[in-house]
Amino acid sequence: MPDVRLVDILDIVIVTALVYQLFHMIRGTRAVQLVIGVAILILAYAASRRFGLYTLQYVLQYLGVVIPIAVLVIFQPELRRMLEQLGRGGVLVSAFAPLGLGREETIRLVNDVSRASRILGLRKIGGLLVLERHTGLADYIETGIKVDAVVTVQLLISVFFPNSPLHDGAAIIRGNRVMAAGCLLPLSENLAVTKTLGTRHRAGLGVTEQTDAVAIIVSEETGTVTLAREGELHRDLSEEELKAALLTLFGAKPAPSTAHWRWWRTLRRT
Length: 270
Fold this sequence. Notes:
2 domains; elongated
């Protein structure tokens, strides 16, 4: 039996972590179906060699030259996301990204965002807030109207007030400042998303699929508040649940309590 070195164990752990991260990133996207298709072609090639299906084997050999190039083109969003995570140190270590604020400032920001979301929901005013984390959102900020003002409840409500110039689009928050409003975001490409969700929800989900940002969506039809993170939606949140989730995500966890426990546990699992 060959000797197992410590470096061999480390090698296996690193490769396992990379493979896990890759599957985690493509989960819930169309890339899953593409991976299944590639796997079927590989199995077909193996079967053609095993049973002497020479014509099929000949065709699949030439496909093997084209497939790597096709994968690079088709998986471009997923590969870009992986490289972004690598650049910010998030491939092997999954850590919550800070806002660049102190704990008290973060708590104040979360309180204002959560309260504004609740008020917008009660008045059934649609809203889309995006909180920047490690991945820069400058490209999206440039599509909107510059605001560059400190976050307050009154400011957030006025931004999304019906018929205002900034009502449509997203408000992007960097640190404790609203950098721009009326910003355009990429729509989600996740085919598994229910058809009942509108453009606002798909945009909020889309930006979290391509970056590590957190999006808060307030439905204009129902007034429900939804949190989007890492390509997943957490719907129908109360103000306290949203506040607890954001505090956990941005490293300013509240003291454990029954009201916060359910969402803290959910975020730990996902």
